[in-house]
Amino acid sequence: MENLKLELILAAMINFWILFFFFKHFLWEKLSKAIDERRKFLKASEEADDLTKKKLEEAEIKVENILNDARSKASEIEKSADELSKQNTAKLLEKAEKEAKYVLESAKTEIEKDRLDMNNSMKSKILDLSLKLNSKVFWKQESNKEFFEKEFEVLAK
Prior knowledge:
single chain, mainly alpha, 2 helices, 92% helix, 0% strand
């Protein structure tokens, strides 16, 4: 211990206490505040991170629910569209059947009208021919007209 002098140890201790005093008096509060603020900031960051994770999970759940609802609504819309399509198809088929019946009825009516016209035309031609033949054979045209008309009516039925 010869190399160690009491004065040097005492000077070192005084220097240490002076530095400690200045540090404690001038820097300790500022450094303590900075550390506290940093701790508060880290705690707030962790809380915000936890809150963000929680909200993200809630949002994912909501998104999944919305997607499920959208899928079910899309399925319902598809079913109703299919039903409407079937109803429209049924209505169109019914309309087409009615139009076909109308066309068929009008064609039958037209055919019946043409048949009656042809029948009347044929009747008048046969009657004229019969009367001409009668007039050539019997030299009378009007005498058997009523007879021929009655006979033709019987044959036409």
